[in-house]
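CORE FACILITY INTAKE
Project code: CF-77B
Contact: R.S. (postdoc)
Sample description: multi-component assembly, two entities in total
Requested service: structural model of the whole complex
Turnaround: standard
Below are the sequence entries exactly as provided by the requester. Do not edit them.
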Amino acid sequence: MLEIKNLTVGYGAINALHGISLSVAPGSIVTLIGSNGAGKTTTLKTVSGLLKPKSGEILYEGKNIAGLPPHEIVRRGLAHVPEGRMVFANLSVLENLEMGAYLVRDKKQIRAEMDAVFAAFPRLQERVQQISGTLSGGEQQMLAIGRALMGRPKFLMLDEPSLGLAPLLVAAIFAKIVEINRARGLTILLVEQNANRALEISHAGYVLETGRITLSGDSPSLRQNPQVRSAYLGG
Amino acid sequence: MTELLQQLINGLALGSILALIALGYTMVYGILRFINFAHGDVFMLGAFAGFYLAPKIATFVPLPSVAGALIIFGLSMVICAALGVLIERLAYKPLRKRPKLTVLITAIGVSLFLEYAGQFFFGASNKKFPDILPTWPVTKVLSLSVNSNQLIVLAVTLLLLLGLRFIVMKTRMGRAMRAVSFNPEAAALMGVNTDVVISFTFALGSALAAAAGILYAINYPSIDPLMGIMPGLKAFVAAVLGGIGNLPGAALGGIIIGVTETLVSGYISSTYRDAIAFAILIVILLVKPSGLLGKKEVEKV
């Protein structure tokens, strides 16, 4: 569904990604793990168009989307839940969800998507009129995911959904991610520092180190890999 | 008492005009985090658009008349909206990724350009703004004399404020404006074309400035290409006073500056009329830099 070929991205003279390649099969959850500064967020931002690549291709459903502006990429059914959630703190929960459906003109479809989001995250329905800045971290993460689903995407990218959440909430969020993948058949590219959990729920994984893919494979074998175990899974 | 009320009404009329200009400053700041110092000159262009439109309109709608005034009003707003978009596209957009200071200096350059291009094309001397709106006899209520033009200023301002509130709070574009203002990247990830939102913001702000320009010219019918400087600066102070980036704050700030200025020139001395706005700016920056209704900017890490 998504295929990245030889992608190089830099900030000024410094390259953050040195020609990485990866692919995500339709319907799967693929995770990108790595330490801070490895280039995980840069990868997602480039796919969603927030950053322009220096070279390389990003094939989405067979078409190269590298370098397109974000709103063109969103229109093709690709949603990105950014690191730190970035809910619109000055907007209500309802307005945040409406923003997620910004490109959807059909009122009925918006209503249906909103009902689906409320079914998945009942907490959001309870707080629908609340200003999002007053939500807890976990609720904001639910809102960020719910908002991304409002546009009925075909491909979802999640950047560190577990960041700053209590372990119990992390488990709940990861369970939701699996549920969304199964129920909607939504393809997911998941970036995580919490490698253990990410490999648990994903089908395949890539290890990113200082801008290069150093390891890849299906998730069960990556979890057994001694290098991965010592570097990311705490031995 | 009567005199005080009289001064308050005069101040409200002036304050409304400043409020309309201040909204443009604050909206652009909210979206792009920079002060568009050319905004006061868009106000001037609004008045001149009215000045040049009036004789053309008079050929098919007799002037002064309400219908004619409405047409002039609407057309000036449309013309200035287009100019605002053009200024942003040509002068500011190429600098979007540059330091804010670069854009700020460019804005001052655009301001000077508009002022002196205005002198070149319109002439530097004062012009008498035509009577486009019929004036009713001065109304005496509670022995206050209320000029019909002052009532028009208040009514039109109120309508424009309600219209703006509706656009910002209830429409899809308004929601996108608020989203971009909070976080442009996140808004882009929702499918918002931020360039369109920025253009729309400039159009909206410039249209309000044009409306202010016409209202000003109706009340003080001598116009010249440098007429935008002082009201522009005072409206900027009004926006800071209310809390830059905050729409109700800009409206409130405009009213406060207008009323204070009128009271000072009425009771103390008109010599200090122009100084008072800047005295307020100094005080607000010392005491509450975030403004009356502004929130403290949280530094993002």
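Facility notes:
- Strands of chain B lie at 127-128, 139-141, 144-146, 222-223.
- Residues 190 and 234 of chain B are 37 Å apart (CA to CA).
Invoice: internal transfer
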